[in-house]
Amino acid sequence: MIGLGATASYLPERWLTAAEIGESSGIPEAVIVEKFGLRGKHIAAADEHISDMSVEAATRLLGQQDLDPAEID
User: Fold this and answer.
1) Has residue 61 been placed in a domain?
2) Containing structural domain, residue 50
3) Do residues 42 and 15 lie in contact, with contact meaning Cβ atoms separated by under 8 Å?
4) Tens of pLDDT along 26-55?
């Protein structure tokens, strides 16, 4: 059977608030919150790449499910 049995995620530590997004974009904070539905967003560090974040999420998933990477097709 093919399917997803579990998922995991990773979010960078740095948090940019809606006010900070508004400051840098020129969009009023109220518009960002009320129209876009954002209170803020996670921002990757300069040295944190998508591959690093993917590995962290995969490592968490394998640990949560007690899986050996060698057992995955």
Assistant:
1) yes
2) 14-66
3) yes
4) 999 999 999 999 999 999 999 999 999 999
Cβ partners under 8 Å of residue 67, min gap 6? 61
| Mean pLDDT to the nearest integer, 65-70 | 90
Answer whether residue 4 shows pLDDT above 90: no
Give the separation between CA 49 and CA 68, rounded to whole angstroms.
24
Number of domains in the chain: 1
Residue 23 — very low, low, confident or very high, per pLDDT cuts 50/70/90?
A: very high
Cβ-Cβ contacts under 8 Å for 23 (sequence gap 6 or more): none
Size (the chain), residues = 73
Q: Which two tokens stand for residue 26?
A: 């020129």
Terminal C-alpha separation, the chain: 12
CB neighbour list of residue 28: distance below 8 Å, 6 or more residues apart:
22
* Paired strand residues for 40: 17
